[in-house]
Amino acid sequence: MKSRLTLNLGLLALIAVLTTVAVLKPGKKEEPQPTLVAGELNSLSRVKLQNKDTLTLEKKDGLWVLTAPFAAPVNQVRMRQLVEVGQAVSSARYPIKPEELAQFGLDRPQATLTLGDTTLQFGNTDPINMRRYVRIGDTLHLVDDNFFHHLTASATDYVDKKLIPEGAKFRQIELPGLKIMKGAEGRWTAEPAGDGKTDWAELASTWATARAIEVKRLEKDTPGETIRVTLNEGSPIEFFILRKQPTLTLARRDLGLQYEITADTARDLLNQKKSDQEPAAAAPKSPGEATDHHDDDQEEEEYEGEDSTHGED
């Protein structure tokens, strides 16, 4: 009886080992899952995206730039995410005929992305697993839909929100009523000199890192005060102040764009104190004087956004 029990336990152990071998298949490499676009995409130099806009993006000197519908610097992180759409795993593939396009929303694609020689058209999602239908040539692919917001983004959504190009070196910044200059020894000075308490290098650093909370096409080119940033290389960058309240709006006529800046960031960029932008308090009322409905303690409206951080220049 004992020997039979030992034999049964041995057989169970053998079955467990064989099952593990069958499942894990040691020594056999797992086949890589196919992607929408085969091969590396790092060598791409031109990408086209069609949705409500038609965007053309080109790589120049290792960086992506927008060349149509207007020319502008591009957010490199978001551009990389757009290119990586081509690396989405194709979980299922079927041949598709022209008369079948409508049922998948591909007769009028919601977006078309051209990566090199490959054109991807994006339709609806399947009602069960919510995977996106993608057409490449005569093949219908199904992919997990975690990137579609990049495909429907407008041209301005791809524009870099930094006011000054990454890594740019300043020589001079001209603000309304103030000019700061960097000397040969690297020390910043100002005209007028001020009270000696302001750190002009910190002001330059603020400009170097400042970002807008939103970028739009220039709506109305209204003349305003000028801000000019002179770099060590290249032409000066000029901004025109469209409005200061409730948020600072700067225009770049050369790009046809306007940048929305939060109130806190605006104060730092324009070297202003908070009290400089707040309305003056009304004089005290006499007992018999009529009282208006103005709130003397009303603070300026704050807008959520990404404030600039001060770095080294």
Notes on the protein architecture:
With 313 residues, the chain is of the alpha+beta class. The chain folds into two domains: 46-158, no CATH class; 170-277, no CATH class. It is 18% helix and 29% strand. The chain contains six helices and 17 strands. It has a nine-stranded antiparallel β-sheet, covered by helices on one side. The longest helix has 23 residues, at 2-24.
Can you describe this structure in just a few lines?
The protein contains six helices and 17 strands.
Compile the SSE list and pairings.
Blueprint: H1 2-24, E1 46-50, E2 54-60, E3 63-68, E4 72-73, H2 76-83, E5 92-95, E6 111-115, E7 118-125, E8 131-136, E9 139-144, H3 148-151, E10 170-175, E11 178-182, E12 188-191, H4 200-209, E13 214-217, E14 226-231, E15 237-243, E16 248-252, E17 257-261, H5 263-269, H6 274-277
Antiparallel strand pairs: 1-2, 1-6, 2-3, 3-4, 5-9, 6-7, 7-8, 8-9, 10-11, 10-14, 11-12, 13-17, 14-15, 15-16, 16-17
